[in-house]
Design brief:
With 436 residues, the chain is mainly α. It has helices spanning 2-11, 15-18, 20-27, 30-53, 62-70, 72-104, 111-129, 133-158, 179-195, 213-243, 253-262, 264-298, 317-330, 335-363, 378-389, 396-435. The protein is globular.
């Protein structure tokens, strides 16, 4: 159950409360259909991850799978991209938190207050993580439960305040002018919705710290995707049913919809749920992200060993501090830019992971334990095609960031490899001298 709640916290992100406005603006009522389409798309990738997680018990997820399928350098690059994805998610949730607070009081628009609170949250989460996973599991379970209760209250009560007339128009007029305009609107909405599901890839990252991961993680991946898809679609349907076309006017549409339905207490309830949700996802990111680079350093020596150093509470303290520093830099960026970076980094780790499934199915390497992907190569092939479609929705700025991260990682890899070779020769020399 703790892994399930960790997955819920990782997938139900701030976008569930803030992004419906953007999605509705592009596709109106069809945004519910697009949410389901995105869920089915990401679920195909999640099934590939379920297949891979049943083959390995080590921590790392995408980089670990690519390492075994395509070698050390590919695994290393994927590890750096996945770590970057984690830092972006962590930062995006903190920026989302401050965005919500701005709607409550103008004082949070002050730069000193804004960055003071953001840095304070990162420092607090860092301190908690330094005391190991026991506290992490407790906080994560509580925040996940509170988040789901808030969403269920909104869906169940809000359903009684739906007005059928708000379900028109089904699609914006601009999207009906031809095939080109339609797919332009569809692609814009799809790429945003896609972000709302990307958190599933973090579930296997800390596999080594879980019980029986090769059997439990596939079950959790599937159950989390089903749960989240149902909740997202119903949230969108209820919000549109209450607000209709006015939805585009509000930065916190879910909270405003509940306010319109039941009064001010509804607004307060959803805002509280949003804050818990954002804090929960940020907290999950603060736990998963350091685990990733610690596994890169400890399990296959792809990073210097000092990065994976642990304290007496079994917490990778160097990795935790390094992740916190990068996140502090990223919080200076806008929420939507961080979202675009998250989608890009997700795409980069999905493609090699899907190819790894295809390779292992062909070579029969690393047999499955507990879950096996059905229908042969059909699901990975579809997942690969749809993942590649995401390339058409990236801006040049986002692609540039992805290229820069990859190039810097490749340059660093050269020096790390060089140091590893020197260290290996040094150890052989010392061993030879001891034998003498």
């Amino acid at each position: 159950m703790s892994i399930y709640f960790l997955g819920i916290n990782g997938v139900i992100v701030s976008g569930a409360f803030l992004i419906p406005q953007t999605i509705y603006k592009d596709m109106n009522l069809m945004s519910v259909f697009i949410t389901i389409c995105a869920a089915l798309t990401v679920s195909m990738v999640a099934l590939c991850y379920a297949d891979l997680s049943s083959r390995f018990t080590g921590s790392g997820a995408a980089w670990l799978y690519s390492y075994h399928a395509f070698g050390r350098f590919t695994g290393y690059e994927l590890g750096i991209y996945t770590w970057f994805l984690g830092c972006c998610t962590y930062a995006a949730e903190i920026v989302a938190l401050l965005t919500i607070l701005k709607t409550l009081s103008p004082v949070f628009s002050n730069h000193a207050v804004y960055y003071g609170i953001a840095i304070g949250i990162i420092v607090l989460f860092t301190i908690i993580n330094l005391f190991g996973r026991t506290i992490v599991k407790l906080v994560d379970n509580l925040s996940s439960a509170a988040k789901m209760i808030t969403i269920l209250i909104f869906i169940i009560i809000g359903a009684f305040f739906i007005h059928k007339m708000n379900f028109t128009p089904v699609i914006p007029k601009a999207a009906t002018l031809g095939v080109g305009p339609y797919f332009k609107h569809f692609g814009a909405a799809f790429s945003v919705v896609f972000y709302m599901f990307t958190g599933f890839s973090f579930i296997p990252i800390a596999a080594k710290q879980m019980n029986n991961p090769e059997k439990n993680i596939p079950k959790v991946l599937i159950s989390v995707m089903i749960t989240v898809t149902i909740l997202y679609a119903l949230m969108m349907l209820v919000a549109i049913g209450i607000l209709g076309s006015k939805m585009v006017n509000y930065s916190t549409p879910i909270a405003v919809a509940f306010q319109k339905a039941v009064g001010d207490w509804g607004y307060v309830l959803v805002i509280a749920g949003m804050l818990i949700s954002v804090i929960g996802v940020a907290f999950a990111g603060s736990f998963n992200t350091p685990s990733l680079i610690a596994s890169l350093a400890n399990e296959h020596a792809m990073l210097p060993k000092w990065i994976g150093k642990k304290n007496k509470h079994d917490a990778a303290w160097v990795a935790i501090l390094l992740s916190a520093i990068i996140t502090m830099i990223l919080i200076t960026q806008s929420y939507l830019f961080l979202v675009s970076c998250i989608v890009l980094a997700s795409f980069i780790q999905y493609v090699p992971s899907i190819l790894a499934v295809i390779k292992f199915k062909h070579t029969n390497e690393f047999p499955n334990n507990g879950f096996k992907l059905p229908f042969g190569y059909v699901i990975p092939a579809l997942a690969l095609i749809i993942s590649c479609y995401m390339v058409t929705n990236f801006t040049w700025k986002t692609i540039l960031v992805g290229v820069v991260v990859g190039v810097l990682a490749a340059v660093a890899y050269f020096f790390i490899e060089k140091d590893e070779i020197i260290e290996e020769k040094h150890q052989k020399y010392l061993s030879k001298m001891r034998n003498k």
